[in-house]
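Render this sequence as a predicted structure.
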Amino acid sequence: MLERLARAGHSFVDEAGQLAGFTWSLLGESWALLKSRAALRLDGRLILEQMEEMGVKSLPVVLLTALFTGMVLALQASDSLEKILKGVSQFMGRTVALPFLRELGPVLTALIVTGRVGSAIAAEIGTMRVTEQIDALETLGAKPLRTLGAPRLIAAVVMLPALTVIAMVLGLLGGWVVAVATVGLSSLTYFGDIPQMVTLADLWKGLGKAPAFGLIIAAVACQEGFRAHGGAEGVGRATTKAVVTASILILVADYFLTAVFRTLF
């Protein structure tokens, strides 16, 4: 048992070290791309395409998830508030807004993008790896990490905050629909209660997590794609591992970021 634990610990540390090194290299290539006007002109279109893929095409699923999560949260809040004290459903606005701005908005958005975009990145780069297209790029003198990884990292870091803001708004609107249609609150009561408890610091706590989550998604997906081997089966393994690893790291990072923001704000 001790030997198995030691092997598992060694494997975990090794994987963490490899991911940290890969992320550092990816950040360096992204910074070099942004600094170079010539490279930015060449790869600018690819960055915009990735922003469209991660942002615009992810909107429908983000909107639906945020809307119905807000509606469910409002229903649960109304039941809980009425059990505590009759008539306190007037505080439903803050009950929905606080968790959505601080946690649910950024975390749900990141997990959705991980499943939709992270898997696609790993599969696309993994297919290029097993079909030796990446080797061809290296032979031609190109830098695969800058050409394939940097645009995706930049797009993820930029688009995650934008999607998070939209998710926050839709979550609040979902809670408003339930508050008005089911509980019987007025729109003024619902939205008027939010500023009584929610501050700009709560908004920044949620938005501050989004770029970090975008970095995790892009770094993990690109790493697993570049490491793929073994044909179609290997691409499938890389895709699955990218989604699982990124999802776990998002939840772990959420805890530490919450602790840091709690100290700062």
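Summary. The chain has one domain: 47-264. The radius of gyration is 21 Å.
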